[in-house]
Design a protein that fits this description.
This protein is mainly α and about 280 residues long. The relative contact order is 0.05.
């Protein structure tokens, strides 16, 4: 990518504007000061201000070699504001500038996964793994993306690769439990979750996941015990209440199931995810 095009990308990302940030920071005149101002804005939970400060820094010095990392920070700020297209552009600019650094690939991959664009995420993680075949985090995340992309064979390959160079990896076991759950091999999944929970007894998410396997196995009593304990540890997870609603509905506890479903929606469960159960309740 030539320098002229990179400069154009910086200008597009920065824009031509008289900014609110400039109005509030009219004494700022250097690249470093704009970066410091962005950190100050983040400390105040002002993402929009932080974004603007980074854009001002890059507009001031579009050829500064630090701009690659600034684009990573900018993309993360935009992602936090759910401006996913802008974040994708920023991460892509970072990749073009950082060359051999895999940080930008990793952040863009996680963005794609959040956007449910799993094949794009897989492609980015594959770049990282190509450079370091024993990158456990990238292998694990690629396995999850492959699983979400209905590629259980590929997911198992990645997790088994981890197991070869790190036989004690908790990530490979957690990933395999998810694979077994997706394949309907519930007994194998429960066995792995049992071991993981024994090692991590305070993990509410592991209890929730084992409860789901019990639910799929029609072991409703065991499922309810696990999900009750999970919710007692973390009462803010919408998926936990949604799962308990399904368990209670299957047990015939209709009124409690409705309460749990309403609570799940209050906590952020999308109406589309709840639609099937809502239909049953009407």
């Amino acid at each position: 990518m030539n320098k002229t095009f990179l400069l154009l990308l910086v200008v597009v990302a920065s824009g031509t504007y008289a900014t609110k940030a400039l109005a509030q920071n009219d004494s700022i005149s250097t690249y470093e000061e704009w970066i410091t101002a962005s950190f100050d804005a983040l400390d105040e939970n002002n993402n929009a201000q932080a974004e603007q400060c980074l854009k001002n820094a890059m507009k001031l010095e579009p050829a500064n070699p630090q701009n690659g990392l600034l684009f990573v920070n900018l993309g993360t700020i935009q992602r936090n504001q759910q401006n996913y297209q802008d974040a994708e552009i920023s991460y892509t600019c970072a990749i073009s500038l950082l060359e051999e650094n895999t940080v930008a690939f990793s952040t863009r991959a996680s963005l794609y996964a959040e956007m449910e664009e799993y094949q794009k995420a897989i492609d980015d993680y594959s770049v990282i793994i190509g450079r370091n075949p024993e990158n456990e985090d990238a292998l694990y995340e690629r396995a999850l993306c492959r699983l979400m992309n209905n590629d259980t064979v590929g997911a198992r390959f990645d997790l088994e690769t981890i197991d070869k160079f790190n036989p004690k990896s908790a990530k490979s076991r957690l990933g395999m439990a998810m694979v077994y759950k997706a394949m309907g091999e519930n007994a194998m999944a429960v066995e792995l979750y049992d071991a993981l929970i024994k090692a991590n007894p305070n993990s509410w998410s592991l209890l929730r996941d084992r409860a789901e396997v019990y639910f799929f196995s029609k072991r409703l009593g065991a499922a309810l015990i696990d999900i009750d304990k999970s919710i007692s540890m973390n009462g803010k997870d919408p998926l936990s209440y949604f799962l308990r609603a399904k368990i209670r509905w299957a047990k015939g506890d209709r009124e409690y199931a409705r309460r749990d479903l309403n609570r799940a929606v209050e906590l952020g469960l999308p109406q589309s995810a709840a639609a099937d159960l809502v239909e049953k309740m009407e």
